[in-house]
Amino acid sequence: MAVTVTVPPVDSTVAAIRTFGALCRAGYRRHATYRQATVAGLVTNTVFGFLKCYVLLAVAESAAGLAAGYDARQLVTYVWVGQGMFALLGLWGWTELADRIRSGDVVSDLLRPVPPVVSYLATDLGRAGYALLTRFLPPLLAAPLFFDVYLPHRWWTGPLFAVSALVAIVIGFSCRYLVNAAAYWLYDVRGPMILWLVVSSALAGLAFPLRFLPEPLMLAVWVATPLAGLFQTPLDVVVERDPPAVQFGLVAGQLAWAVVMLLVCAVVQRRAERRLVVQGG
Predict the structure, then answer these.
(1) Are 209 and 68 within 8 A, CB to CB?
(2) Burial group, residue 216, by CB count within 10 angstroms (0-12, 13-18, 19+)
(3) How would residue 162 be classed by pLDDT, with cut points 50, 70 and 90?
(4) 60/75 Cα distance (integer angstroms)
(5) More exposed terminus of the chain, fewer Cβ within 10 Å: N or C?
(6) How does pLDDT run across 61-119, given as a tens digit for each residue?
């Protein structure tokens, strides 16, 4: 049986890459206009960084210097990199898609040549690029001035963390997209958004490392949900909590969840478009 493989023209591939890049730049410029909000967010992240750092250091001290396999220096790095990751992911407050669905403006998104999932992803990557420069790096530079931080010893930890952080952004976007897409079926999505706020706060590794949980619950969250891929995996990579093989294995699992979540977003968007057609939208 002959199998025919269709290869897209080079020109169309280049055009798609350029379009994606243009959308990323647009997302960067859009968020670069909110300078006061950026400064306010940076100050808030820094204050919470101090609070969380002292709490976890107290936990480590009460546990004879080692809490769930983390020493004090690793916990300091965990907290401050996590505060920077919070800005990169932008987990809460994004309601643009839900608002456009309720107003009907989403129809214009469907008429564009770029699928909504792709266009919103590109814009979000641009937002993350701006957050990297303005809200991720400053806390990392400030932390060594006040605390004894852990610096990675393995040469591949830096590049591996960069990959893991990028994948975390994609997973975070996918989760937020699905929460917003609930507006296709629910006029008011405040319920799903509150649920997402609670779940992502408690079970993503932001408030505390998931390894603090009982092992069965930790494994269930880590394996059965994408939540650990948001904070826990990148932060465990950067503090070198595990041996090298486990480091790479965690990022591989994170990549698998990113692919799954993007596919789920595409399927949900396709179902939503069919629903709009049936309703005469």
Answers:
(1) yes
(2) exposed
(3) very high
(4) 8
(5) N
(6) 876 777 888 888 999 999 999 988 988 888 887 888 888 888 888 888 888 888 899 99
Whole-angstrom distance, CA of residue 250 vs CA of residue 123: 27
86 closest CA partner among 262, 234, 259, 255: 234
CB neighbour burial string for 139-152, b if at least 16 within 10 angstroms, e if fewer: beebbeeebebbee
Distances (CA, A) of 58 to 28, 47, 203, 236, 238: 39, 17, 21, 20, 22
Determine the Cα angle at 163 with ends 80 and 137, to 5°.
35
Q: What is the pLDDT of residues 15-44, one digit of tens each?
A: 888 888 888 888 888 888 878 888 888 888
Handedness of CA 49, 51, 52, 57 (dihedral sign): positive
The answer to whether residues 82 and 205 touch, using CB atoms and an 8 Å cutoff, is: yes
**Burial environment of residue 122 by CB neighbours within 10 A (0 to 12, 13 to 18, 19 or more):** buried
Residue (of 79, 85, 236, 87) closest to 144 by Cα position: 79
**Largest distance between two CA atoms of the chain:** 68
d(CA 55, CA 61): 10
Q: pLDDT tens across 207-245, in order?
A: 889 898 888 999 999 989 999 999 999 999 999 888 999
Q: Where are the domains of the chain?
A: 20-278
